[in-house]
Write a structure and sequence with these properties.
Shape: elongated
Number of strands: 0
Order of helices and strands: HHHHHHHHHH
Oligomer: single chain
Strand content: under 5%
Largest sheet: none
Helix content: 55-70%
Number of helices: 10
């Protein structure tokens, strides 16, 4: 009962009007919003995009007049009528036939010998063709989750093979990257999240550094504007000191060379202004 009575007494004297920002324990100065600092969260690039996967080109335009892949070595088709050749060409073939022809062309570029079907270069070339074909489809059907998963797995598999080839044959690795026009992007050693607090802290430091440099530059220009007057005053002061020392018969500490050096500095400064 005593605890309840004490709580009611405290609530009687505490009202919303008494709870101000000053007594709430929250400071009311030096907020980031008072400064001219604006932070925008960087756009997240999906791992299936060419910018992240390292593909520098997409699927090129295929010559539709060439025959399909299964009929390229057909001797009967070479002597057939033009209408028959056109029916067996890629122009009247479904999309999968076009992609098969593209995959075969990619493998022909990097083959070690005519019967090479399983080397690392051929595997990477075949996966590169599939990746580019899937990336083109993902632009048209971005909601296809199954294709997205398959594409991500292919990109990771190609990265693994490229890492293996880079470790064991670096010259062939560089040649393959140049031939297929791709960029190898290894995963970072230390992953770091981009946070708003840390980014605002860096932007604030940069903002303060810019203010410091601007004020230093303004102060430097002001000193340069006052430099001719200062040199003239210095020449008069040195001449006065020399004359006074000569009249008093004491050792002269101000030489003519010092005065001439200051006078020459003043002349050079006036020439620079002109």
């Amino acid at each position: 009962m005593n605890i309840t009575r004490n709580v009611l007494n405290i609530a009687r004297y505490v009202s919303p009007s008494n709870l101000t920002l000053k007594h709430s324990g929250c400071r009311s100065y030096a907020f980031k919003s008072d400064l001219k600092i604006k932070w925008v969260r960087p756009e997240k690039i999906p791992c299936i995009r060419p910018e992240k996967s390292g593909d520098l080109e997409c699927v090129p335009k295929i010559d539709l007049s060439q025959p399909q892949l299964l009929f390229r070595e057909s001797k009967e088709l070479e002597t057939a009528d033009e209408t028959v050749k056109k029916l067996f060409s890629l122009e009247y073939a479904p999309r999968r036939k076009l992609t098969q022809a593209y995959f075969q062309d990619m493998k022909e570029i990097v083959k070690r010998h005519p019967f090479d079907v399983g080397s690392v270069e051929v595997q990477i070339a075949r996966w590169t063709g599939i990746i580019r074909a899937y990336q083109e489809l993902m632009e048209r059907f971005p909601r296809n989750k199954r294709m997205k998963v398959v594409l991500k797995e292919l990109i990771d598999r190609r990265k693994k093979k490229l890492k293996y080839l880079r470790r064991w044959d670096y010259k062939r690795f560089e040649w393959l990257l140049e031939t297929l026009n791709i960029v190898y992007k290894p995963p970072p050693n230390h992953f770091h999240w981009v946070t708003r607090k840390e980014s605002l802290r860096k932007l604030t430091d940069k903002y303060c550094e810019n203010i410091k440099q601007e004020r230093l530059e303004t102060y430097k220009q002001m000193l340069q504007a006052e430099q001719p007057v200062f040199l003239q005053e210095k020449i008069r002061a040195l001449e006065f000191m020399r004359n006074e020392q000569q009249e008093c018969g004491v050792e002269v500490t101000v030489t003519d060379e010092e005065i001439e050096a200051v006078r020459k500095q003043l002349q050079d400064l006036e020439k620079d202004k002109l």
